[in-house]
Specification:
By secondary structure, the chain is of the alpha/beta class. The chain has a single domain, classed as Rossmann fold (3-Layer(aba) Sandwich). About 25% of the residues lie in helices and about 20% in strands. It is built from 9 helices and 13 strands. Strands 6-5-1-10-11-12 form a 6-stranded parallel β-sheet, with helices on both faces. Strands 3-8-9-7 form a 4-stranded antiparallel β-sheet, with no helix packed on it. A 3-stranded antiparallel β-sheet has the order 2-13-4. Helix 8 links the parallel strand 11 and strand 12. Helix 4 packs parallel to helix 5. This is NYN domain-containing protein.
């Protein structure tokens, strides 16, 4: 047994993913869900509190340079479009992340116990960093499935949305924010069913309860084993349907790194990026 085989066996033992029980494993990754697993973690692997400028992350995008706030621009340079929309940033901005995480850590961990990996995530065609992530995903995973993010207008209420931290837009009908939406429930489910003859166990990386029907179908109609890798917000029904559940905290040391955050300067907005599960708060 070489060193790589030893590490594979050690991780399998640690996570209790025995070859005899689970056989051939295909992993399906809802990265929009994974991307938020550790964003509220306050301690490092040794249990010490993170400093105010540190944060756990699995996100692998390079944050582009901040744009100046609309209010700081000359009027003839303020952004507009053919719908006569204007944009500005709120003044109560939080610290923003400066994150550079290598997807190779995630893919390497998965490859130690699975036979194939399928990655699902949306992209923003207007951001080179978003496209760069997809290029990296295609390099490190067997299949990377993607599609453009759809942006939904949410009209702002002066009272309910007083603490909004997103980029504020304005048109003839009033002020609004754009909420990214890019679910992959259908694509992931179709692939998992279509490929079910090729694996013994489906391993789902997601805490999204929308996949409950998929896991039930694969167990009851296709006689498949189910491994669920999830965060702490996963509902009991989804976990109950799995043959093995693995908390994200158990693999955090393998797939996440601590990065320094960067305090928002005047005019910086919050780069919210693509969302696949709708869990990003307003």
């Amino acid at each position: 047994m070489d060193f790589e085989d030893f590490k594979n066996e050690r991780l399998r033992e640690e996570l209790e993913i025995g070859k005899e029980k689970f056989g051939r494993i295909f992993c399906f990754l809802d990265f929009g869900n994974i991307n938020h697993w550790f964003e509220k973690d306050q301690r490092n692997l040794d249990g010490a509190a993170l400093s105010v400028d540190e944060k756990w992350s699995v996100d692998s995008r390079n944050k582009p340079p901040a744009k100046p706030a609309t209010s700081d621009m000359p009027k003839n340079q303020q952004p507009t479009n053919r719908f006569n929309e204007r944009s500005s940033y709120p003044t109560n901005k939080p610290p923003t992340k400066s994150v550079v995480v290598d997807l190779e850590r995630l893919s390497t961990t998965i490859s130690r116990f699975s036979n194939r990996s399928y990655f699902y995530y949306g992209f923003d065609a207007g951001k080179s960093a978003s496209l760069h992530l997809i290029v990296k995903a295609r390099k490190f995973f067997h299949v990377a499935v993607t599609k453009p993010i759809q942006w939904i207008k949410h009209r702002l209420d002066p009272v309910k949305d007083a603490n909004n931290l997103r980029l504020i837009n304005e048109d003839s009908s009033g002020r609004f924010i754009r909420i990214p939406k890019c679910n992959f429930d259908v694509e992931l489910s179709i692939d998992a069913i279509r490929l079910s003859e090729n694996y013994d166990t489906v391993c789902l990386f997601s805490g999204d309860n929308d996949f409950l029907a998929l896991l039930r179908f694969l167990k009851e109609k296709r006689n498949k084993k189910v491994i669920l890798v999830h965060d702490g917000h996963t509902r009991t029904e989804l976990k109950a349907g799995a043959d093995l559940t693995v908390s994200a905290q158990r693999i955090k040391k393998y797939i996440a790194i601590i990065k320094k955050t960067q305090r928002a300067q005047s005019g910086e907005g919050l780069d919210i990026g693509p969302v696949s599960t709708g869990r990003m708060p307003l």
